[in-house]
Design a protein that fits this description.
binds pyridoxal-5'-phosphate, Carboxynorspermidine/carboxyspermidine decarboxylase, EC 4.1.1.96, about 375 residues, 8-stranded parallel barrel, 12 helices
Length: about 375
């Protein structure tokens, strides 16, 4: 019997294709790749992912702990701001700790004296299509901006983290950014042992010039004699996961609207945050529908798509690219049933790895 909807369905074979590209990049560039748990933390898949990566990186103490416990390898601990009650545990679980500001570095560096300590530096340039996700946006708090202040603390630092890319699928754009980093920070790169260029580089895409990226990263690492890290999140899971939903009702209001057993805000939140449309395949045919969720949000729409045949109640729809920034953001808005999580194994069988019920809803509040 097919698994009930809604559920997220992760495809192991698709994940393998992305991971093969990660392996190629690591081998050709010498760069280390850390999984950014912020984008994807469905730990049932870590046994498959971790052997192709060097460890994990984090944006909170919970992610540090999850990385240490479930991912293995090197655990990088970063947070936009560590709280006093978090810092000891973060340091105890981490292989490197990265501070977001000189204020945090000064507050906590003595506790971390036995660890490699990094600082997030904000070079003031970026590649992002969205102001909301642009670390170089006006008044950004993401990373230290004042290089003269960075110079003054260099003796406490072994590396930098510079995260300035968001969904960047252009190698030329990344290479140009790297040129700008070198202009501004080259004299400091000579004095550190490692630099992480963060996430947001979409190098697992089919047409991405992986060899050019690898050559550029290798040349950079050799020039400054340091270890390069990348922190891909979305690039690891892009194209691997669908949100499987079923049609519950079809209504007409100038357009045909199919209501499904899911909700955008609860299960694919970023479509709303970034005002994007979801996608289906092949999205072709003479029958056009708005695919809408069952929450009471008026704009709860996954998108408008074409289908080869009329939809009927009970039909199943696969919403594509539901891996990154979905399961880590899902919520109980409207009490809509939480999608289960399933994995399509390489032999084709679909295995349910987690389901949620009323008790989970109740325990999410008090
Ligand atoms: C968000 C983030 C990542 C992962 O970004 P992706 O776009 O998912 O690759 C990596 N590092 C840092 C510091 C981040 O904030």
């Amino acid at each position: 019997m097919p698994l009930a909807t809604p559920h997220y369905l992760i495809d192991e074979a698709a994940l393998d294709r992305n991971l093969a590209r990660v392996d190629r990049l690591r081998a050709a560039s010498g760069a280390k790749c850390l999984m950014a748990l912020k984008a994807f933390a469905t730990w049932s898949t870590f046994a498959q992912i971790a052997p192709h990566m060097d460890g994990s990186t984090s944006s909170s103490l919970n992610e540090v702990k999850l990385g240490r416990e479930k991912f293995g390898g090197e655990t990088h601990a970063y947070s936009v701001a560590w709280a006093d009650h978090e810092i000891d545990e973060a340091i105890a679980q981490a292989d490197k700790i990265i501070f977001n500001s000189i204020g945090q570095l000064e507050r906590f560096h003595e506790k971390a004296a036995h660890l490699p300590v990094g600082l997030r530096v904000n070079p003031g340039v970026s590649h992002s299509h969205f102001d909301l996700a642009d670390p170089a946006r006006p008044y950004s708090r993401l990373g230290e901006r004042d290089l003269s202040r960075v110079e003054a603390v260099m003796d406490r630092l072994s590396g930098f983290m510079i995260h300035c890319n968001c969904e960047n699928d252009s190698f030329d754009s990344f290479a140009a950014l790297l040129d700008r980093f070198e202009e501004r920070l080259g004299h400091l790169f000579e004095r550190i042992e490692w630099v992480s260029f963060g996430g947001g580089i979409h190098f697992t895409g089919e047409n991405y010039p992986l060899d050019a990226l690898a050559a550029r990263l290798r040349a950079f690492a050799e020039k400054y004699r340091l270890q390069v890290y990348l922190e891909p999140g979305d690039a690891i899971v892009t194209g691997t996961t669908t949100l499987e939903v079923s049609v519950l009702d079809i209504v007409h209001n100038e357009k045909a609207v199919a209501i499904v057993d899911s909700a955008v805000e609860a299960h694919m939140l970023d479509l709303l945050v970034y005002r994007e449309s979801g996608s289906v395949a092949p999205d072709a045919g003479p029958h056009r529908y708005v695919i809408a969720g069952k929450s009471c949000l008026a704009g709860d729409e996954f998108g408008e798509f074409d289908f080869p045949a009329p939809l009927a109640v009970g039909d199943r729809i696969s919403l594509l690219d539901a891996g990154g920034y979905t399961m880590v953001k899902k919520n109980w808005f409207n009490g809509v049933p939480m999608p289960a999580i399933a994995i399509r194994r390489k032999n084709g069988t679909v295995e349910l790895v987690r389901s949620f019920d009323y008790a989970d809803y109740v325990t999410s509040l008090s």
